[in-house]
Design brief:
This protein is mostly helical. Helices cover 63% and strands 2% of the residues. It has a two-stranded antiparallel ribbon with strand order 1-2.
């Protein structure tokens, strides 16, 4: 290592990408520069990400979207940020002020920290120093990301609890129950990646996708993560902590449109960016060029990989916006049922199958045992699925029979099982409703 902080920089290392051994050797000022660059990327990403989402959804709905402030409405989010920063800060009288102020900070800071493990590119020359385009990497980097996502939930819970409002409290509790439902399935979706890559380091996971992306090689894990990604970002169809229809405004009901509310919105967008960055890093090859661009010898060297990462990142974000514009919010019990009854069992069966295949690949002498174990796992999974489908079908038939019975009762006695309102004096039996007279119109 030279005094400028240069590490292993052979041509092979540059082509293959950095590993854990290339971190921890940068001078302090380079670390500060990379931290500032990451902060600027996320800060500007939040400002223009809001504009981009509003524009994209408006085009899907045949509207113009923001088009007043600046050319193409580019300054609309800047104007909104300035407005929220300068508005009067209102405190409800009954709130716990310390936790009320601390909750938005707890939501924002872990989101920034979680993005610090995302690699943007290989080793590059940054102001004369050869350094990886990643702020930090750890032997347990993916677990660090999961921990930061779990910590941010405390901010949501504290925001609801400190507001001393029943609706806000229900939104915070929903977030706590929601994270239990999807976080386990999301963590299990990474296990297959760990088995194939042999590491929890994000830079080395990107290196392991040099030949094939894990989104192709481990497509069940990728699909499970895509579902859990919306729960992690608290976006539609899983934005249950913010159910406006039943919770007024969710956990942020008592937060005025001031700087605190701006921090809450920033935290949610940062978690969306983190979910997109983790999807690109763990499943979509990270900063590596897609085929056929990867056939070019210099595609994965220098600053070009930053462009490939940014394109994948934007496309993933566009997918999240598209889902928001297309799907409705699911019920609370539907999310819990999906997480515990579908995602977790499917993940466990898939992990066993991946472990059996991996054992056969690494230890060819265990081929017979591995193949037999794989067949047993597949048969057991199919049997469980058929059993589950049969039980679910019976439950649907029983529910349908119950609904039909209630409907038949209503047709005979319209007031039975209805809302506790006085019966109307109109002849509405058998679907016949009298027309009001001209005097009562």
């Amino acid at each position: 290592m030279t005094p400028t902080g240069t590490t292993a920089l052979a041509t092979g290392v540059l082509a293959a990408g950095p590993t854990l051994a290339d971190f921890g050797h940068d001078p302090l000022w380079i670390i500060v520069v990379k931290a500032v660059m990451l902060f600027a990327f996320l800060g500007l990403g939040v400002v223009f990400g809001v504009w981009f989402e509003r524009k994209l959804i408006s085009r899907m709905q045949h509207r113009y979207g923001p088009n007043r402030a600046g050319r193409f409405g580019l300054l609309q989010s800047v104007a909104d940020a300035i407005k929220m920063g300068l508005k009067e800060d209102v405190f409800p009288r009954t709130v716990d002020k310390v936790l009320y102020l601390l909750a938005p900070v707890i939501m924002v800071v872990p989101a920034f920290l979680a993005f610090s493990i995302v690699p943007f590119g290989p080793v590059v020359n940054l102001f004369g120093v050869e350094t990886p385009l990643q702020l930090v990497d750890l032997p347990v980097a993916v677990l660090f990301m999961l921990a930061m996502g779990a910590v941010s939930v405390y901010g949501v819970v504290l925001a609801g609890w400190s507001s001393r409002s029943p609706y806000a409290l229900l939104g915070g509790l929903r977030s706590a129950a929601q994270v239990v439902s999807y976080e386990i399935a999301m963590g299990l979706s990474f296990v297959a990646i760990f088995l194939f890559a042999g590491t929890l380091s994000t830079s080395e996971i990107v290196k392991a996708q040099e030949q094939t992306w894990f989104a192709v090689l481990l497509i069940p894990s990728f699909l499970v993560y895509v579902v859990c990604m919306f729960g992690e970002a608290a976006r539609i169809p899983f934005d249950l902590p913010e159910g406006e229809g039943e919770l007024v405004g969710g956990f942020q009901t008592e937060y005025s449109s001031s700087l605190k509310f701006a921090l809450i919105m920033m935290g949610e967008y940062l978690h969306t960016f983190t979910a997109s960055g983790i999807a690109v890093t763990l499943f979509l090859g990270g900063w590596r060029a897609p085929f056929p661009i990867s056939l070019w010898e210099g595609a994965n060297q220098g600053w070009w990989p930053v462009l490939w990462f940014f394109i994948k990142f934007v496309l993933t974000f566009c997918f999240i916006v598209w889902v928001r514009a297309s799907l409705p919010r699911v019920r609370y019990d539907q999310l819990m049922s999906l997480g515990w009854k579908v995602l977790i069992p499917v993940n466990l069966a898939w992990i066993l199958l991946v472990a059996a295949v991996r054992n056969v690949v690494v230890n060819p002498e265990n081929r017979t045992i591995g193949i037999g174990l794989g067949v047993v796992i597949v048969i057991a999974a199919l049997a469980i699925w058929m059993r589950f489908d049969t039980v679910n079908q019976r439950r649907k038939e029983a529910r349908k029979a119950q609904v039909d019975a209630e409907f038949a009762q209503l047709s005979e006695e319209p007031a039975a099982g209805g809302f506790p309102v006085p019966p109307l004096d109109l002849p509405h039996y058998h679907g016949v409703v009298s027309r009001p007279s001209q005097d009562h119109r």
